[in-house]
Design the sequence.
């Protein structure tokens, strides 16, 4: 039979524009969240994290927003660069253990 | 620090053969994780260790999969016998206790079972 793979959402953004990547998490008990970036042929790399007692956190060119009411997380990347092209994953954690549960990911392509 | 080291980076084998994947975590890290990434299922946690002791192996798909951590600087993931559906990228990650944000991933082993 035909195999069906994950439908990986894709986002194409012009270089220099801002991008927003969204993630819906599943577990209302999750209280810690991380965004990872995975470039082709590499393992996921930590970008930014946020705890459930916060609704916004900013890093260098990146901002994470958390809406616990609707279990939604977003990653904003400002002034995108070609090197931002990658697959971005959100991951959730309950602080009772060390396990991370990953979302399906979004492929971001920066158009020069 | 060299980061998490995995070997081999690529492995091609025939169905029925034994496959052993290796991982050296970051020195000083207390936790070690094995993940599998496929198009079908995304990134899945298979098993993780704390101080060389397996804590949760609920993600290990079948008895054909086994993992060991004989010391703080080495872990193996073994598949015996391998099947085509085991084809995937296998990642090892390590972290400090109580600091999930320090979970660093290795470069992965791309496994193809023919």
Sequence:
């Amino acid at each position: 039979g035909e195999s069906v793979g994950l439908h990986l959402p894709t986002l194409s953004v012009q270089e220099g524009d801002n991008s927003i990547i969204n993630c819906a998490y599943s577990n209302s008990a999750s209280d810690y969240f991380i965004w990872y970036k995975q470039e082709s042929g590499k393992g996921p790399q930590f970008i930014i994290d946020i705890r459930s007692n916060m609704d916004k956190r900013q890093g260098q060119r990146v901002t994470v927003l958390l809406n616990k009411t609707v279990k939604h997380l977003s990653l904003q990347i400002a002034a995108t660069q070609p090197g931002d092209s990658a697959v971005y994953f959100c991951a959730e954690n309950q602080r009772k253990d060390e396990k991370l549960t990953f979302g399906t990911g979004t492929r971001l392509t920066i158009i020069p | 620090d060299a980061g998490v080291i995995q070997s081999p980076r690529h492995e091609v084998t025939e169905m029925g053969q034994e496959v052993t994947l290796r991982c050296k975590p970051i020195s000083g890290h207390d936790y070690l994780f094995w993940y599998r990434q496929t198009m079908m299922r995304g990134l899945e946690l298979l098993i993780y260790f704390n101080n060389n002791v397996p804590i949760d192996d609920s993600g290990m798909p079948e008895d054909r999969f086994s993992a060991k951590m004989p010391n703080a600087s080495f872990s193996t993931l073994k598949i015996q016998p391998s099947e085509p559906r085991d084809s995937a990228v296998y990642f090892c990650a390590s972290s400090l206790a109580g600091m999930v944000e320090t979970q660093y991933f290795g470069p992965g082993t791309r496994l193809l079972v023919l």
